[in-house]
Amino acid sequence: MGSSYLLLDEYLCFLDKGAGVEKQSPSLLDVGVQKGLSEVYWGQKASRERGGIFEWTKDALGDGDVEGESGCGTANKNLLDW
Questions:
Q1: Phi-psi label, residue 2: left if phi above 0, alpha if psi -120 to 50, beta otherwise
Q2: Higher pLDDT residue, 43 or 25?
Q3: Which cofactor does it need (predicted)?
């Protein structure tokens, strides 16, 4: 199941945490997404089977205008104000 996720580190490198030695792609900022993906194993079929394909839209995340709805998972968006 672990290979059904695409993992990125803080340097925008894909991480392959499958069986064996952990691999890391070059930074996507340097080589682009396609090259980065070619450096690690990603189980696309397993990702689809677990429902890992999402359509990210603002509407799907909620805009926080309705009580109990927020893209950050909290009913009170003011909790995030500094």
A1: alpha
A2: 25
A3: [4Fe-4S] cluster
